[in-house]
## 1
Amino acid sequence: MKIIDGKETAKQIKKEIAAEVADLIDNKGKDPHLAAILVGEDPASQTYVRNKEKSCSEVGILSSVYRYPSDITEKELLEAIEYINNDDEIDGLIVQLPLPDHISEKRVIESINPAKDVDGFHPMNVGKMMLGLPTYLPATPYGIIQLLERYDIETEGKNCVVLGRSHIVGSPVSVLLSRKANPGNCTVTLCHSRTKNLKKIAKSADILIVAMGQPKFVTHEMVKKGAVVIDVGIHRVPSDETKSGYKLVGDVDFEKVAGVASYITPVPGGVGPMTIVSLLQNTLKAARKEVYS
């Protein structure tokens, strides 16, 4: 069994991004600039945005965070997005999810200028992804694809099972792995909470991608010997083994599944770091006008 080290891979990609950012600044005098909108005080969102700021700083990308209280109206938030859409100094814009219940996530995503939508959630960018056209790929699926590529994991002709159908991870990664590309050319089965015989289907996978949002959902009985296991989940659970009283686990029972898998991502340190570097790569594409010129 080999560990797919997302933390180390992300570190290497950051070096590549930093060199490309420096080249862009030297040749075009352009500093890539990523803006994030953060609504409310959700601790996980606060941490994630801080990590994005830190990562931007490490590679030479400018970052701005627009913070708003949780009682901001939808109209006010849409006006803030429009302001950033019209700011030529900002290349990429992300709105940190989840949003308060009184704000429509759909309306917010659709209001972002597709050319600045480095999260890859705008319907125009999702459509481009579906058609295999140049676009910003959603960050987590993009990170997963890069891990498979950099670890030379064969995907062509393999059975890939994706557990979870969210528009953020499950659905887009199933599209990307079914495409005529490398990594790609998989036969993909997309499962969800209503899938019958889910355990049996999971066990048929050569590549198992798990994004169910349930701690330790996948046990070793659900994994074929020699399968590649990509764990997208991250959960804080109580633990007597740590000083903090909790530990982070994924959607996969890592200790037991590691004994069956050929490759496996840990939690933390697997897919998570790759999500942020993928966002940085999309921001660099936006600054270069690679997708929308």
## 2
Amino acid sequence: MTEKTSQDTSSQERVQERIQENMKNIAHKLLVISGKGGVGKTTVAVNLAFSLALQDKKVALLDVDIHGPNIAKMVGAEGTKLGALPDGKIEPIFVPPGVKVVSISPLLKNADTPVIWRGPLKMKLISQFLSDVDWGSLDYLIIDSPPGTGDEPLSCAQLIPDLTGAIIVTTPQEVALLDSRKAVNFARAVNVPIIGIVENMSGFICPHCKKEIELFKKGGGEKAARELGVPFLGRLPLDPYIVISGDEGKPFVIAQREGSAARYMSKVTASILKEIGEKTRI
């Protein structure tokens, strides 16, 4: 082993130790992934975090989508900056009713600034978020990653100690299901436990006739879960209010607690908690 290789190894070990020390008081770390874009993964991650917060859980939301960070916008924190604490730690953004939020977007000049980075820089930033943010004591850390099985989800899988598991988001149509299977196999390849599959955009209730229309089919996510031998966590409807609430920076589980989308999300959250409990007891 050369001197440089030895130094690099030592540096990586120190980073890993800092991450482990900083995250030791987080009970559950959940990685939300999808095989392809456009399936509503970030919407699920955001509303899962706020659904848990409504149950008096201590929750944080980490956006590791470096090139397309949307979480700050979707929680109404766009334009809010991350703080710096006296001990050198990064202070997360605090969003009522009590969710800590961290993303690269508050570090950018403006919302239109692109992040033109290769893998090593992205991994370095993710490492810094994990090791230098003042996460405190948490029940749940929800990590929203970009679509696919590239640098960001791989970095999380390699860096985060005791990752509780991955939640895979898909839509019912066949092309999305093909990619969701890849996401399941990715999690298995990197030894991340699979919490289960969420089927998003599953059915649309016509606001006029109240009949359900299967715009993107229905039941595909459940079928994929069954075929792959992983839990099916439930479905979320295609609801115009979900889009409106995201654009307005108001998670729908907060803005419309009695709405149908919030009720479906409550069932998905309950399924996730059940699966976590079963895996924890093993």
